[in-house]
Specification:
single chain; mainly alpha; 3-stranded mixed sheet; 6 helices
Amino acid sequence: MNLFQQLCKKHNIDFYDADIDPSFTKDMGKDHWTNYSSSCFDEIRLGFYDDKDIKNISFFHEFGHCRVPKVWSKYTFDYFAKSYMNRFYDEIYAWRYAILFTKKLNIDFKKETIKWARGELATYFNQCAWASDNRIKITQEMENEMYKLALLI
């Protein structure tokens, strides 16, 4: 049992790794699951990765989603899906958890991997900016959270 499987078992998270059993990728296809993973509640689906370091940081990010109390827990899933700002904060907390947890495990990532992770978070910030047409307002607090996370990683 690898580290990912051990952590998921310990925390009652269903874990699917495309490299071990790619059956979950058949519906959407291998291209969709290349360099992509997802999590929902207590389930992680880890796709195919060209870079092992990116696969590792992706796992810990998705693990963070499962471990961090959800920003949207007091709302319905529908509300969360429509709220870019809640999604943005959920992403910040998952990345922050991933980085702090891996530091405790003495796992280091290449500089290129950290740059990739920052870029992934930035996509959610950009979604917030795109959605700011009266639905939300990009706040200084959001920008500060991006900056603090960039310093952390």
